[in-house]
UniProtKB/TrEMBL annotation:
This is Amidohydrolase-related domain-containing protein. It holds the Pfam family Amidohydro_1. Residues 49-361 form the Amidohydrolase-related domain. Gene3D superfamilies: Amidohydrolase (3.40.50.10910), Urease, subunit C, domain 1 (2.30.40.10). SUPFAM superfamilies: Composite domain of metallo-dependent hydrolases, Metallo-dependent hydrolases.
């Protein structure tokens, strides 16, 4: 397979911007820079930037076609935070498309919670809920041994599990070598997550902003955050979600929460909560990550910090040792865009070329705003 050269291109290598340089694709990996030879394809990178393929750290993938389309929007890895029924989980796990899929399978939820009502639409009844600490241990065992999940996901909002159940799930996940991820969309869930010791918390509150004390506690305990600002922005506009939760929702609280976490030193990852949920909400997979990056910049991250949140920092958190950086020997999951996203984060939308494991992927049309449609 001929190598691909991008000459005179700036490179965001997962940590910082360098260039102009040359990048070489050699088979499925990034090769050593050298002078081009006969048969090599040469691409002029003048005025363009190469990035690692982006990682969306919170998705819900509907089907194989949706998963395959993610790479066309430069998202070459996704972390699914709730995949049901089991047949869908197994199909995504076995997929060999251009986008790598990681998953949690069924999240732990409490009977009588908001998610219990929502899960009925996916055919998941109350008999699948976790009711006590013994069922909590069995839940983790089944996810790890039977489903072979990449991490364990729990719904930590109130009304929901007793603290003892959250504690036991985290304890069992650690014992079995799995990372624990908590859904926490309301302020009162965060102290519960801190007491239990979750590794990752996904979402930020709409009802009130995180305090400096909570953010500093998260940083002190090494907790990682996936704010999903795209979803929070959409929920704040939705009368349907207000009817379901009966809580005040102000998107400014979410933005202030991200600022508090950044100031405290909490690692922040990019995730959208992309989902096709019919009447509730729809956030398009792949495309929406560009909007998420812009919202993270609006919340106070620099463009460089934002790109790390979708590349190297995400790869480090989810133990993806072969991607997230533009380095020799890493997977050639690469994106070429017009302009410099470290000067203007919206440049990630101006997609020129995409490669997954060294193979070209047909890029999508300009990404648009990536927001969702809600009722």
């Amino acid at each position: 397979m001929p190598q691909t050269f991008r000459q005179h291109v700036h490179i965001f290598d997962g940590d910082s911007l360098a260039g102009p340089q040359t990048v070489v694709i050699e088979g499925p990996n990034i090769g050593q820079a050298r002078d081009p030879g006969d048969g090599d394809e040469i691409i002029d990178g003048t005025g363009r930037t190469v990035l690692p393929g982006l990682i969306d750290c919170h998705v819900h993938i509907a089907d194989e076609a949706q998963l395959a389309s993610c790479a066309s929007f430069v998202v070459t890895t996704v972390c699914d935070m709730g995949c049901m029924p089991p047949d869908k989980f197994r199909a995504h796990r076995a997929g060999r498309g251009p986008t790598r899929w990681l998953g949690a399978g069924l999240p732990a939820f409490a009977e009588g919670s908001t998610h219990a009502r929502l899960f009925r639409f996916a055919g998941v009844g109350g008999d699948r809920a976790v009711h006590d600490v013994e069922e909590a241990a069995g839940f983790v065992r089944d996810r790890v041994e039977r489903d072979r999940v990449d991490y364990v996901k729990v719904i930590a909002d109130v009304p929901g599990h007793d603290q003892a159940v959250l504690d036991r799930i985290c304890e069992e996940a650690r014992r079995r070598g799995k990372m624990s991820v908590a859904h926490a969309a309301h302020f009162d869930a965060f102290p519960r997550c801190l007491r239990a010791g979750f590794d990752v918390v996904t979402h930020v509150p709409l009802d009130e902003p995180l305090t400096r004390e909570v953010a500093e506690s998260m940083a002190a305990r090494g907790m990682v955050a996936v704010p999903t600002l795209t979803m929070m922005e959409s929920f704040a506009r939705s009368w349907v979600m207000w009817l379901l939760t009966r809580r005040a929702m102000d998107f400014e609280h979410s933005l202030r929460s991200v600022r508090a976490m950044k100031e405290a030193g909490v690692p922040i990852l990019a995730g959208t909560d992309s989902h096709s949920a019919g009447v509730l909400y729809e956030i398009p997979a792949g495309k929406s990550l560009h909007h998420e990056l812009e919202l993270l910049v609006r919340a106070g991250l620099t463009p460089e910090e934002t790109l790390r949140a979708a590349t190297s920092q995400a790869a480090r958190c989810f133990s993806l040792e072969d991607r997230g950086w533009v380095k020799r020997g890493f997977r050639a999951d690469l994106v070429l865009v017009e302009g410099n996203p470290l000067e203007d984060i919206s440049a990630t939308r101006r997609i020129v070329k995409v490669w997954s494991s060294g193979q070209p992927v047909e890029p999508a049309a300009p990404a648009g705003d990536g927001t969702c449609v809600m009722t």
